[in-house]
Amino acid sequence: MTLLHDIIQIALIGIGATAVMDIWLSLLKRLGVQTLNIAFIGRWVGHLFRGRFAHAAIAKAQPIPAEWALGWLAHYVIGIAFAGLLVAVFGMNWVANPTLLPAVLVGMGTVVAPLFLMQPAMGAGFAASRTPTPLKNCLRSLANHTVFGLGLFIAALLIDWIAR
């Protein structure tokens, strides 16, 4: 296959996995579980372009024009990058023959990004240490990223099925 074909497959897997995670988060929200406001991701990314990485509290930072749209774009670009990580670790052979364990392991591993990069930069501290319930928030993040890993597997299966 061509490089472009591989890139498209990886992008579709990342988009699909992120959509599965979003469905999960929507379900949690309907059940009354608080989830991250996607606009805050956009606000953080917008401030990155202005040279500011860390905030005492992202909710109190100056809003960014179109931060909601920027947040969604960043969310899906990150999902595609994590799908690329899966393929970088397990190869394009995994895409042709997806298995659950590698996808879930990579999904679980991606929890490092919010716990040790995004949360501290947004003012929540390392592993949500500045929040009222750090352990609960860490476990929720792990669950969400495990669902993302499941989404990697489901998206790869679906793409493989469609391609046949």
UniProtKB/TrEMBL annotation:
Protein name, as recorded: DUF2938 domain-containing protein
The species this protein was found in: Pseudomonas indica
Record keywords: Membrane, Transmembrane, Transmembrane helix
Transmembrane annotation, as ranges: 7-27, 73-96, 103-122, 142-163
One family name in Pfam for this protein: DUF2938
Top-level taxon of origin: Bacteria
